[in-house]
Amino acid sequence: MSTKMATGIAKADGGKQAATQATKQAKERLGGAPVHLALVYASSAYDYNEVVQTVRAATDKAPLIGCSTAGEFTDAGVETGSVVVALLSSDSIRFHTAAATGVKEDVEAAVRVLAEKIPRQVEGHPHLGAILLADGLAGIGEEVTLTASNTFGPEVHIFGGTAADDFKLQQTHVFHDDQVLENGVALCLMASRAPFFTAVSHG
Fold first, then answer.
1. What is the spatial distance between Cα 92 and Cα 88, in angstroms, rounded to a whole number?
2. Tens place of pLDDT for every residue, the chain, 203 residues?
3. pTM of structure
4. How far apart are CA 61 and CA 177, in angstroms?
5. What is the pLDDT of residues 181-200, one digit of tens each?
6. Cβ distance 130 to 157 under 8 Å?
7. What is the DSSP string of the chain?
8. CA–CA separation, 177 vs 52, rounded Å?
9. What are the residues whose beta carbons fall under 8 Å from the beta carbon of 182, sequence distance 6 or more?
10. How far apart (Å, rounded) are the C-alpha atoms in residues 73 and 62?
């Protein structure tokens, strides 16, 4: 199997309905493979707790991270006011998630909490990458990335972004398992048997 990712995107009258539809799409495209990680991105049009709880229930409580957004997209297209769910299944990558709050007041302390919650080495999986998502309105996107890079070291390839709220500029949130957090940061460490490669196409 190696590693497979499948996505779903949906708009509906409520968070539960949108998350249910998006998760169903992703699971169908995953073809029955077990879910080892869920990535969730949701418009502020929805109750984030409803979205997160729905995805967790539909994926047998697989580890989850995500954040609020200002526009959503998958390989199928671009939307606004929607929920995106990406599901990963892998027999060569191990996933470890963590979260911390208080990032606006003390970035270094928040990143230390993350570091304490995840392994620094995973036997048989020497190649490390991390998805890092932070509260966008805390204004610490660059600082938290640099602090995480210094804390985890050059062997951990870090990528991710900051949360939004459909340009309302009121509250942004990150998601971790069953939690919806303000003033927070969420991380997924991926330990792989093979090296990670990143590529970007923009414009």
1. 11
2. 589 999 999 999 999 999 999 999 999 999 999 999 999 999 999 999 999 999 999 999 999 999 999 999 999 899 999 999 999 999 999 999 999 999 999 999 999 999 999 998 899 999 999 999 999 999 899 999 999 999 999 999 999 999 999 999 999 999 999 999 999 999 999 999 998 876 766 65
3. 0.94
4. 8
5. 999 999 999 999 998 876 76
6. yes
7. --EEEEEEEE--SSHHHHHHHHHHHHHHHHTTPPP-EEEEEE-TTS-HHHHHHHHHHHTTT--EEEEE-SSEEETTEEESS-EEEEEEEESSEEEEEEEEE-TTT-HHHHHHHHHHHS-S--TT--EEEEEEEE-GGGT-HHHHHHHHHHHH-TTEEEEEEE---TT--S--EEEETTEEEESEEEEEEEEESS---------
8. 8
9. 101, 135, 171, 172, 173
10. 22
- Assigned token pair, 99: 């979260």
